Amino acid sequence: MLTTAFATLFTHFYPIGNTPAVCLTQCLPPEKQAKILLLGCGDARNILFTAFSDGTHRHLDITCCDLEESVLARNILLFSLLLDSPDGIGNGVNWNIYYHMYLDRACYDRLQEQAKKLHGLSASMDTWRGSRYGTLIRFCDDGTLARVHEVWGFYTSETPEDKQSAGRFETAMRTAIQRRDKRLEPGGRSLVILTGLRSANPVGLTALEEINTLHQNFWKHGTTNMDSKAASQAGIMYANPMLVSPDAAATLHYGTEPCIGFHMSTAYAPLADSPLPQQLRMSKVEGVVASAQTEFAAWSNSFRRRAMGGLTLRMFAGDAIAFSHVLQCRHATGKADLAHWYRTRQEMEPLVLDRDDYGPAGSAPHSFNVIDTSNLMDHIGALNLLVATSPLLENDVSASLYTETLVKVEQSHHDHVDRLLFGHLPTISLLLGLLPVEYWTNTSAGCDSQQESIMDTILSGSGQSFIRTTWKRPLTHLPSSPIHLVGFDEGALANILFRVYLQMFESEGLSMLFSSLILGRIGKLSLPLHHRASFAAFLRLVKSRVAVDWDKTMTILFCHIASDRNCLMGHNYMAELCIYMHVLGVYSIDELKELPDPFPNPHGLNGDLSSWAAMPSVVSVTLKVPREKLRLFTDEDSLLVGTTPVRCVLESALDAPRREAWHQVFVAAQIGFGKLSQSGCRYSNSYQLHIVNDRLGWHGESDLFVSFLASSSDLLLEPQTARVAFGIQRTPATALRFSGQLGIELNVFETSLADAEHVYVSKYLPNQSGIMAVAGFADSGEASRPGELSQDVTASMKASVDSRTGRISAFTTRLDIAVDVLKSALKDGCPVQTAPGSSNMELTVTVGGMPLKVTFPTPVVGSGCKTRIARESSYIELIVQTPTNPALLPLASPVYTHDSNIPTSWNMPYLAKMHALPTLDISKRNKLQWLHLHASMMFSARERRLHADPSLPSTQIERTRQGFKESLFALFMNFTGLLGPKHHVFGLNNVTGGGVHILIFVSSLHLDLANRTVVLDAAVLPLTDALMPKLVLTLQLLTNYPGGICHIRVDADEMRLWRQMLPAYVERCRTWSHRSDCEYLADGARVPLSVENGQAVLCTCGNGAVPQIRELKYAAKYAVRAAISPLFPCSLVDEAYDGGDLNDDIPLPGGPPAPAPAAARTGGCLACGRDKARDGSELRTCAKCRKAKYCSRSCQRAHWKKHKSQCATDAAAAAGSG
Question: What GO molecular function annotation could you give as one example from this UniProt entry (predicted)?
Fold first, then answer.
């Protein structure tokens, strides 16, 4: 009930995913067991790909939630087929059954056989658990099992011989095809292109033509068979019930295409040795299908092996928000049956989880270290989603929550940041107990946003914008942190919350209704996703994350809301806001705290509400809407009605004096269809409503029941004559669509409280025995107290808020000294020093020789830290500012050792199965031209401008970040030979700071399918003073080896940044375990160990674990494996490159000009980057311009076409100056 109720007469069925598969465990170090929650889980691709990609022996416990039980039913059927098939046998049939719209007789019979078997096994929870699938696949509740059981029965309800029912599946499929053809008229094409391009990255633009061909063929023939002649001659084909929903309102989505859930890049990139079977030589389109089927087979085989004991799948069919809050309740209270939620927003069925798995002794997880929410925030709202899921995320440095958006609502990514959480993103995230990783690091593992920005330019607006965001716990939330709650000034916090309120309900403002912006955002305004109950649930969560006088904060907030003149209709929703703040334990106004008993009965009537003894202050009102009143919805074309927001109204009688009139709107209403029965005595606390659910809903024949919570004191104002109404929520679209039929009020049905046939008032909502719970974070009794920084020092923190913007501008951390030795030292004037920590969220404070590590919930500007020392009172205050622009923060990919003593890569995804990644054949340079464009996407539009014009204002941090990316670019270009001769041994060379300090030996280049980018499999060897005497033989070998070392020039700051990044590059591909005496875990150690010349950078735990590289023959035991990928900017922070200099004809063989030529980084030969000629002599200078340098005549000739025009310009300039 925390999301808007809709009359849903038409929906799309999504049996097949429309984004490429991701590895769900890539945030976890190898030692961590995986507890995964998939909300809006969709098809099986992410589970199968994770089983294939996860290179560990950890157990995968995956809980899958989807609103559509048909999605779960088809997934389970596929899993059962995989388990029943010997390794590698039947994968082709399984592909057809799972993905094809039409099946031949053999596949159709196999599907029917499997569905009948599952239907029999799922008769009860006991029969299922006793089956061969019962250990691997568990159902979270009886309701889910029953619904999936019905779907399997639906699959078997039609056979080719059954003429009475024949055609049901075919009719549904034909309807989907007709609606798709109508939808994808001119103007819809770009949606399909962009969806497929994500799957083709990093090859991207190369795949444009084939993506459209794939889609058209699939919808024409119903299969992925690209042989048109064979498809047309296939004989009798049968509509596949696996792609048909039993729900009459659902139609197969028009963008459905099987291959886009896979990684199309394997069909375009030149592959060398790969764990995937070698593809046949065929057309490009056939190659795409073959590569997808090859992946599917490999994933299927891995799934079978993993299912032998390393995998548990749990299934829940229902609303993701409801499921999350029930899990919250289980996590916080130990009992799931106290939650009192409904399964979906369209039914009155209570959500009660299985006691065996979710009871006090149950083993099912109720907190998770991976939560993936697909693109649910597009459909239920970002704040609703994060309020529901944040408390379920474990307090662990590796735990990650992923969100995606696909629907483009705002004009730019910057607008998206400003409006996503209805306030300053970092500030509201902190109140939710989360930290948006890509935002604060300005780095992303993939280049999807950059790629789509280019496509948006080409297509002049696409209507989609794919943004995948990782959310983690702030360091202050980890068990090792002494500070769990942040303090606020009550007025400042109330100001932040009021700003959220204003932006959440801005559509109610007069200025918004008449603003020109509404034309671009009318779709969003017409599908409101948040209401006052949503806001109250948000407050409930905030209450548990801050240290303030909460009642004082709420009093101030209420004053702001009461005096607000922006939300014109805000007073109509005030009752609902007060009610939900009361029932959720946020704040109670006097009228709701307690009703007098007996309540005064000014009407002198009995047998109505006023005769209710001990009436609760909040009760449930249920309105029965007769079926004939719904013809407005059911008699119309379901496509026209679509999804319409509904609400209830409670108001004074029509003849009430104007000064006494009142009007209240309730959007947090629960709707459902069915048959009503009653128990207990009416107008008493024993009275209960029972509704038997009618699954046909809007397409059945039952009456509609609508329930909402109301204040008893309001009901008792007019217990007989007050009006109750059900109608349509007013939005720009609904007012235009329905005002002519319903009038300005948009009421569908209305009556009075005295109408006992249609109005029912009870203590609780129908089928419930308590009030809906929003448990939030599990209470820790110590959370609000100052925490121990050490045995003798306690710490507390308070945030400062900019009153103009509502953002947290600074943190003040107070350290209270309790030990006498340090107290005396302070009084005696001992120095107090601060220094940067391992990341920009940490500072080290040294007091009297004792180092104290202080963590902050967001990055801070440590260099500007101010210190206040109260020597007599024995406390120290540290005041640090928060960054105003994350793009100006230093590049960071920290490795943390918090809590578990397991070094953990924080924001660089793990690639524990490097050997399973497809290897690129770099000898085929003509097929690698896309890599030039892909690597150049590391540079944002701003960074490109800085490169083009170095005179533009920039900070040292910006220049260092850009220089680091240029050295990465040079590494990829010189290894592949795309810009000159190939090299595979590289030296990071600070010419003015001691020369080469880091050697990088590259073994191979791979496709990183999970992140849709590339990765270098390499060994890294930081040169230290202690190590140099042991490397004499290796260095001599490199000096004499043909090609030698390719020197990549870096300055001192860039060299330090490389040292900071190396631990993450190493950690992400770790297959070995850190020793108990790991250097990272020593007292006072940090990661990296040092960034200074000559000092150790990495721990030695993984030394010797390197790919086979002959130049490392004598030094392998000192080197360690590293996985080096491009680093892309975050589009939420930095302006994405929009392809402004791309030509109209695409794909371009070389992409846009490189932001930094490889030679600029290598600082030598313009063709190959060498520092010296091949014979060791100095580089030769171009005789004409006297500026360009080359190592040989062959390089000069090879580079002449590129140099020719610049040479003439430079020569003319030199002549003129002479």
Answer: DNA-binding transcription factor activity, RNA polymerase II-specific
Average pLDDT score, the chain: 87
First to last CA, the chain: 81
Q: d(Cα 98, Cα 70) in Å, to the nearest integer? A: 12
The answer to whether 382 and 420 have CB atoms below 8 angstroms apart is: yes
**Cis peptide bond N-terminal to 436, omega within 30:** no
What are 706-715's pLDDT values in tens digits?
Answer: 999 999 999 9
656: region left, alpha or beta (phi > 0 left; psi from -120 to 50 alpha): beta
Question: 943-998 pLDDT, tens per residue?
Answer: 888 888 888 899 999 999 999 999 999 999 999 999 888 999 999 999 999 999 99
Minimum mean pLDDT among 58-62, 135-139, 836-840, 1196-1200: which range?
Answer: 1196-1200
- Strands of 882-994, DSSP E: 895-896, 904-905, 985-990
Q: Which of 421, 416, 418 is nearest to 431 (CA)?
A: 421
Measure the CA angle with vertex 664, ends 661 and 667; round to 5°.
165
Whether residue 627 has pLDDT greater than 80: yes
403 forms beta bridges with 469
Burial of 647 (C-beta count, 10 Å sphere; 0-12/13-18/19+): buried
CB count in 10 Å sphere of residue 693: 20
Task: Report the amino acid identity of residue 111.
Answer: L
Spatial separation of the C-alpha atoms in residues 949 and 1103, rounded to whole Å: 42
Higher-confidence position of 190 and 352: 352
CB 907 within 8 Å of CB 956: no
Cβ–Cβ < 8 Å for 21, 262: yes
Could you tell me the CA-to-CA distances from 832 to 64, 236, 243, 352, 811 in Å, in that order? 52, 84, 68, 56, 18
Strand order across the beta sheet in which 688-693 lies: 688-693, 670-679, 703-711, 618-625, 759-762
Q: How many CB atoms lie within 10 A of CB 892?
A: 20
Q: What is the band of 189 on the pLDDT scale with cuts at 50, 70, 90?
A: very low
- CB atoms under 10 Å from CB of 404, counted, come to 18
As a three-state string, the secondary structure of 946-972 is: HHHCCCCCCCHHHHHHHHHHHHHHHHH
| Kind of pairing between the strands at 370-372 and 400-407 | parallel
| Residue 240 clears pLDDT 80, i.e. is over it | yes
Does 190 score more than 50 pLDDT? Answer: no
Distance from CA of residue 23 to its chain's centroid?
13
- Using DSSP bridges, classify how beta strands 759-762 and 995-1008 pair: parallel, antiparallel or unpaired: unpaired
Prediction pTM value: 0.92
Identify the CA nearest to 3 among candidates 317, 247, 318, 314. 318
Query: pLDDT-based confidence at 1157, cuts 50/70/90?
Result: very low
Q: Which of 120-124, 291-295, 517-521 has the lowest mean pLDDT?
A: 517-521
Give pLDDT, residue 788.
61
Tell me the C-alpha distance between 1077 and 949, whole Å.
Answer: 49
Six token digits for residue 73: 């039913």
Q: How far is CA 417 from CA 423, 439, 942, in A?
A: 9, 9, 18
Contact 1105, 1111 (CB under 8 A): no
CA atoms within a 13 Å half-sphere pointing along the CA-CB vector of 633: 29
| Residue 785 vs residue 1069, higher pLDDT | 1069
More confident position, 136 or 1144: 136
pLDDT of residue 907: 93
pLDDT class of 1170 with cuts at 50, 70, 90: low
At 547 the three-state DSSP class reads: strand
- And the tokens for 581? 């703040």
Strands (E), 32-189: 34-39, 60-66, 102-103, 137-139
Query: What is the 3-class SS of 739-799, one letter each residue?
Result: HHHHCCCCEEEEEECCCCCCEEEECCCCCCCCCCCCCCCCCCCCCCCCEEEECCEEEEEEE
Residue 865: how many other CB atoms lie within 10 Å: 18
CA–CA gap between residue 1190 and residue 1178 (Å, rounded): 9
